[in-house]
């Protein structure tokens, strides 16, 4: 499912116009992105939690040349599914 299909699904489920559904999705995604970039968790009850985690620098191998490279430390976004989502997918 892609973004356009999600917008169509929101439109069908809520009765909003396509534009309103698109704006609602964009606002939701922006809220998640903004909070994660500021180091805060985003918890959606019954769905799951988005959070960030620091990843340490590490040694790696360049796939094209096989040469050893250093991969820098970075902060990555993570997602931990909630109980009802885990049960729905099982």
Automatic annotation (TrEMBL):
Q: Is DNA-binding there in the keyword field?
A: yes
Task: Please give a single GO biological process term from the UniProt record.
Answer: chromosome condensation
Instruction: Write down the CDD domains for this protein, in alphabetical order.
Output: HU
* Pfam family for this entry, one: Bac_DNA_binding
Q: Which GO terms describe its molecular function?
A: DNA binding; structural constituent of chromatin
Q: Which terms are listed as keywords in the entry?
A: DNA condensation, DNA-binding
Q: Which InterPro entries match?
A: Hist_DNA-bd, IHF-like_DNA-bd_dom_sf
**UniProt entry tagged with the keyword DNA-binding:** yes
| Family classification | Belongs to the bacterial histone-like protein family.
Quote the PANTHER family the UniProt record gives.
Answer: DNA-BINDING PROTEIN HU, DNA-BINDING PROTEIN HU-BETA
Q: What is this protein called?
A: DNA-binding protein HU-beta
Give the organism's phylogenetic lineage.
Answer: Bacteria, Thermotogati, Deinococcota, Deinococci, Thermales
């Amino acid at each position: 499912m892609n973004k356009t299909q999600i917008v169509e699904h929101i439109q069908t489920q809520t009765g909003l116009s396509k534009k309103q559904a698109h704006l609602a999705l964009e606002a939701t995604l922006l809220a998640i992105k903004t909070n994660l970039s500021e180091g805060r968790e985003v918890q959606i009850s019954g769905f799951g939690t988005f959070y960030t985690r620091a990843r340490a620098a590490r040694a790696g191998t360049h796939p094209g040349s096989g040469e050893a490279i250093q991969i820098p430390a970075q902060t990555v976004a993570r997602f931990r599914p909630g109980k009802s989502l885990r049960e729905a997918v099982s």
